[in-house]
Design a protein that fits this description.
By secondary structure, the chain is an all-alpha fold. Helix content is 72%, strand content 0%. The chain starts with a helix and ends with a helix.
């Protein structure tokens, strides 16, 4: 992960020092990623009821992060030949790599859900299930991961915004 941190730091420094102005391709990549990421649907496990609170289930967030990681992988593969050594590619790689770290947890949650629930389940039962399968320590880890994603994403946003205003 330190390579990813170095890449994010390098991109942020280059932006601040104005030694990097994102190219049109980099801007297109960043904008497309954010547009597609923001359009990802909130996913539930099969049979999981909608969450009664606006923040959603913790499981939904884990599944969304997993979907974001696959989106980043897909976009990195598609853009690699266009932007092989780009700061934007490094940022997207760092973002996707962080998001991908939830894949084992996502698989674990899906497996536990499938093993334990075959019929209708209430929101209260779902809450109890999440309390058991996403204990506070694990939720704190997901929250810390999300905080790191926000930092990487903010550098990407800064790049897209700076590139969009550069003369």
């Amino acid at each position: 992960m330190s390579q990813a941190v170095d890449a994010v730091d390098a991109a942020a420094i280059a932006l601040n020092e104005r030694s990097w102005t994102p190219s049109d391709y980099e801007l297109a990549l960043g904008r497309d990623f954010f547009s597609r990421r923001d359009g990802l649907p909130q996913r539930l496990l099969p049979g999981m009821p909608a969450c009664p609170t606006p923040q959603g289930w913790g499981t939904q967030h884990v599944l969304w992060l997993e979907d974001v990681s696959y989106l980043a992988d897909e976009m990195l593969a598609a853009w690699q030949s266009w932007l092989p050594a780009s700061h934007m590619m490094a940022l997207l790689g760092a973002y996707g790599g962080l998001a991908a770290s939830v894949r084992p947890l996502s698989a674990q949650l899906a497996q536990a859900w499938e093993a334990e629930w075959s019929g209708p389940i209430s929101p209260q039962e779902t809450s109890w299930w999440e309390d058991w399968h996403l204990p506070p320590e694990q939720r704190q880890q997901v929250d810390a991961l999300t905080d790191r994603l926000v930092l990487v994403g903010s550098v990407m946003v800064m790049a897209v915004n700076q590139g969009g205003t550069a003369g």
